[in-house]
Write a sequence for this structure.
């Protein structure tokens, strides 16, 4: 063990007026770490599922994300193409090589050029899947994996996230439960709330500082009911 | 960095006469205070969350060694490496070694107050490695050769014309006639200029808002996304964080994150909150090959067990300075070291010494607004008073002030003498100010009368009147 | 000029038996600069059915020493105050700052001396800022008979506001003063820059703060500024008068007690 380590830990113990933690105190620390408990959960998200989705939409669009509801995966290619056309952007996307996007029939829009992989500097628009969505603050939870490279979330000017209504949950804690249930903690977990922004010049908010200028959420409603758009 | 806190009075004098600074700081009320108030009004549990945030940090600090050890074990388990740095020099060396081993030529940096504290940029540059700040505010002040004046808005002391001036001066490859007259144009230009630097960097260095003991994760909170590009694009990611950034669990970080953005910018949540755990995994298409965490002490462990321990709960939201009338008057640079504002006044004496930072805890009216907005309920005025007491004990306060106060206190303990003295003085000043009702000048009271009139005493003290009334009633 | 003894309404003997005994903590600034605030406090307390006494042994609460890091002198002064005010049902000060010192900081001063800490806590429990005491303890909902023709704005002194939560009480009573129109002061909760010794130790910063405050006050268009702490009032009045601003400055107790025949703070007496 390094000398620096022992000096820091020794300094901490000296300040706290004790030796190495042991006995009950150590057991309390171990218990807290092995069974993480929730702290206070704000009442804001104590809602039925449908209202949770509405809350997510409100909170996300409040921070300048755009959101479109579609009925099913079949509607996603059109939604993507129309989003790009509406902004006069090239009909090209770099999509995550993610099995969660496999049910999207991209071939329905032959004019939409779809490639898969990690983001390159030249990519203007990324399409990724979500891990969860946190209604409390309109936040997307995006966990990395071999199929979900992180750069797609930051490098391109436009970030389109395909979210399933069933993925909308109340709180960050709900999101962590999902991630823990899926196994080891992913290398990167991004919580994304609206597009990139800065207030560093005279505190005037500008979107698109370094990350995406636009964040577009395509919300795929479960159960095939007609969604409003 | 070399502190100039000892020259606080001179620094403040310069700042008070800087019209551009005054204009820039004038944006703080609408930019920070009003937004915070509105967001918190939408969160009825905010006060309870503050209590919990305080409890989480108090618990962590009481078991800090154990949580740091667990954090290290988890970082190692997930393929990263922890470097322990008791001093700034050791932190700089650890980072330099990693950069040199990688043959790094350029390093991108996310905003880190700890990197400022250890003067990392100077050290890297002196060793032939170019550090590039990527947070817009940090980038601007790096171009200008300045230091951050605020912990979350480093360029808050500047107006847009000054930013444009710097961009014209440094981005010489661009058309010198291009318009740069608003924040939009300036932001776009910085985005374009920095994009290439992100892609070319060999190493990315970020700070951390939290270290998670449970998982070995480091957490950054940004709005621009620069921190994510900094840590995701280069081959190596180095995190520099101080010991008190650790919290036990993901749930604990969730609670404190509910406080952070609301207190800082008045956002419900910052745009990007990113948890990083180890280097990239097998099969990953991007992410760093190496993941290092440098943990800095630099005097913090010595604050444990003292009244200043409570400053170690700080989550660097900036709410205290955003609401501080002293900060609003003099700006951040006057404080003369990395952390300005009330939290700087409370923690800097512990980190750079009371001799250097002695003015900071004194330059406060104890108005308490900082404590009232601190999400972690740090009793900032009490800690400033603690430093004043240490100064008094060590006779670091001016001798004349101590002598004057000593004399006053001596008299205040002798009510009859005190009444006699105040009666004479009230009569004298009352007579001097009788005609106008106020005094424009008063010998030895220039600290008051150079700036404002002194309302004259009525002439007799209350105790005099009261004694007369009682003797009248007794007749 | 100052309301003398003859102007004080006496309490009848039967009322006097039930009346709580109040030790008035005059405060050093009121004693020295503006006794009329003390008499306004006495009148208000008597209107609220209290029997007021003024212990002669009081001088100052000790804040100048306490806030200068001089703990030994602070404790010595605090012991004197604790002793002088033992036995009163309540201790009331026309100042949030001094009341805050008694009720919040004395117990902290004696944290390492159990017997004095007990006495300090006993004093703290009985200590109140004047207007908060009238409203919260004595249940006063309206002033007895005060009238004030003017447009008034109110500054919240920092200690009263943040240590003692004095905010609604002065506004409640002011709303019952005949003829008085209250205009809220933007930034009413921002410090005026007084801060005790701060204003002379860092006068240039203090000046900037009180300049901003004066601009806000003038901006309301109010003809009168009120507050509950004489320190803040002297500072704000001093700046307003130096600028020649036509704003009268008074302690809130003077208006609530209907005792506004004296010149306002820093104003030239009528010839």
């Amino acid at each position: 063990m390094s000398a620096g380590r022992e000096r820091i830990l020794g300094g901490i113990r000296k300040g706290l007026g004790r030796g190495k933690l042991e006995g009950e105190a150590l057991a309390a620390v171990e218990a807290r770490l092995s069974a993480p408990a929730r702290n206070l959960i704000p009442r804001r998200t104590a809602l039925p599922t449908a209202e949770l989705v509405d809350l997510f939409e409100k909170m996300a669009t409040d921070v300048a994300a755009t959101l479109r509801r579609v009925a099913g995966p079949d509607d996603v290619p059109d939604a993507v193409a129309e989003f790009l056309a509406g902004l006069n952007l090239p009909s090209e996307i770099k999509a995550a090589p993610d099995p969660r996007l496999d049910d999207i029939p991209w071939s329905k829009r032959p004019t939409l050029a779809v490639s898969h992989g990690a983001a390159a500097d030249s990519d203007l628009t990324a399409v990724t899947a979500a891990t969860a969505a946190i209604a409390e603050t309109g936040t997307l939870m995006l966990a990395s994996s071999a199929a979900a490279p992180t750069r797609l979330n930051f490098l391109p000017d436009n970030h389109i996230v395909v979210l399933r209504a069933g993925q909308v949950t109340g709180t960050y804690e709900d999101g962590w439960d999902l991630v823990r249930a899926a196994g080891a903690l992913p290398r990167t977990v991004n919580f994304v709330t609206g597009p990139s922004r800065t207030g560093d010049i005279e505190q005037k908010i500008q979107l698109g500082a370094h990350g995406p200028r636009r964040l577009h959420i395509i919300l795929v409603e479960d159960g095939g009911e007609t969604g409003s758009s | 960095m070399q502190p100039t806190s000892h020259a606080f009075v001179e620094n403040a004098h310069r700042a008070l006469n800087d019209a551009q600074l005054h204009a820039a700081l004038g944006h703080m009320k609408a930019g920070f205070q009003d937004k915070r108030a509105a967001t918190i009004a939408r969160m009825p549990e905010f006060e309870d969350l503050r209590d919990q945030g305080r409890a989480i940090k108090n618990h962590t600090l009481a078991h800090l060694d154990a949580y740091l050890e667990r954090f290290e074990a988890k970082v190692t388990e997930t393929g990263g490496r922890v470097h322990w740095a008791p001093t700034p020099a050791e932190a700089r060396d650890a980072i330099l070694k990693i950069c040199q081993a990688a043959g790094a030529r350029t390093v991108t940096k996310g905003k880190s107050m700890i990197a400022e504290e250890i003067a990392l940029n100077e050290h890297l540059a002196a060793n032939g490695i170019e550090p590039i700040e990527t947070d817009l505010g940090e980038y601007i002040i790096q171009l200008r050769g300045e230091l951050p004046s605020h912990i979350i808005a480093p360029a808050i002391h500047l107006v847009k014309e000054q930013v444009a001036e710097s961009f014209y001066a440094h981005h010489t490859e661009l058309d010198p006639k291009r318009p740069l007259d608003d924040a939009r144009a300036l932001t776009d230009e910085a985005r374009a200029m920095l994009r290439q630097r992100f892609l070319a960097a060999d190493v990315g260095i970020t700070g951390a808002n939290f270290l998670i003991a449970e998982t070995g994760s480091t957490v950054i909170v940004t709005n621009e996304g620069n921190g994510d590009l900094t840590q995701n694009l280069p081959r190596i990611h180095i995190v520099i964080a101080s010991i008190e950034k650790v919290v036990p669990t993901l749930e604990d970080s969730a609670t404190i994150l509910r406080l952070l953005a609301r207190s800082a910018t008045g956002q419900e949540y910052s745009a990007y909150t990113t948890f990083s755990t180890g280097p990239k995994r097998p099969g990953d298409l991007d992410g760093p090959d190496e993941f290092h965490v440098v943990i800095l002490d630099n005097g913090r462990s010595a604050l444990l067990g003292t009244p200043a321990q409570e400053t170690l709960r700080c989550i660097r939201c900036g709410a205290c300075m955003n609401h501080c009338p002293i900060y609003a008057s003099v700006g951040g640079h006057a404080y003369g070291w990395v952390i300005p504002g009330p939290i700087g006044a409370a923690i800097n004496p512990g980190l750079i010494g009371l001799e250097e930072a002695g003015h900071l805890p004194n330059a406060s009216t104890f108005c308490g607004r900082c404590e009232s907005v601190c999400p972690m309920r740090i009793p900032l005025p009490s800690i400033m008073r603690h430093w004043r007491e240490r100064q008094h004990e060590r006779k670091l306060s001016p001798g004349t002030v101590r002598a004057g106060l000593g004399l006053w206190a001596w008299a205040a303990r002798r009510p009859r003498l005190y009444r006699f003295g105040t009666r004479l003085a009230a009569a004298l000043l009352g007579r001097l100010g009788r005609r106008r009702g106020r005094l424009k000048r008063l010998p030895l009271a220039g600290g008051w009368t150079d700036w404002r009139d002194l309302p004259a005493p009525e002439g007799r003290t209350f105790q005099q009147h009261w004694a007369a009334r009682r003797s009248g009633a007794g007749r | 000029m100052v309301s003398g003894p003859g102007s004080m309404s006496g309490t009848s003997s039967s009322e006097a038996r039930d009346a709580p005994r109040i030790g008035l903590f005059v405060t050093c600034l009121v004693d020295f600069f503006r006794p009329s605030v003390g008499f306004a406090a006495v009148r208000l307390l008597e209107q609220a059915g209290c029997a007021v006494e003024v212990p002669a042994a009081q001088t100052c609460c000790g804040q100048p020493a306490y806030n200068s890091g001089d703990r030994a002198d602070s404790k010595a002064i605090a012991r004197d105050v604790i002793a002088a005010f033992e036995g009163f049902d309540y201790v009331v000060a026309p100042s949030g700052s001094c009341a805050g010192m008694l009720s919040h900081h004395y117990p902290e001063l004696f944290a390492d001396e159990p017997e004095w800490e007990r006495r300090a806590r006993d004093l703290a429990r009985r200590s109140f800022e004047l207007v908060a005491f009238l409203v919260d303890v004595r249940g006063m909902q309206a002033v007895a008979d005060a009238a004030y023709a003017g447009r008034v704005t109110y500054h919240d002194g920092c200690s009263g506001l943040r240590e003692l939560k004095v905010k609604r009480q002065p506004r409640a009573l002011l709303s019952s003063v005949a003829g008085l129109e209250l205009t809220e002061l933007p930034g009413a909760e921002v410090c005026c820059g007084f801060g005790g010794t701060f204003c002379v130790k860092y006068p240039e910063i203090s000046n900037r703060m009180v300049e901003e405050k004066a601009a806000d006050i003038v901006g309301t268009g109010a003809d009168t500024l009120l507050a509950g702490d004489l320190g803040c009032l002297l500072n704000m009045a001093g700046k307003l008068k130096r600028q020649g601003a036509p704003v009268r400055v008074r302690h809130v107790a003077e208006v609530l007690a209907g005792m506004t025949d004296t010149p306002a703070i820093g104003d030239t007496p009528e010839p």
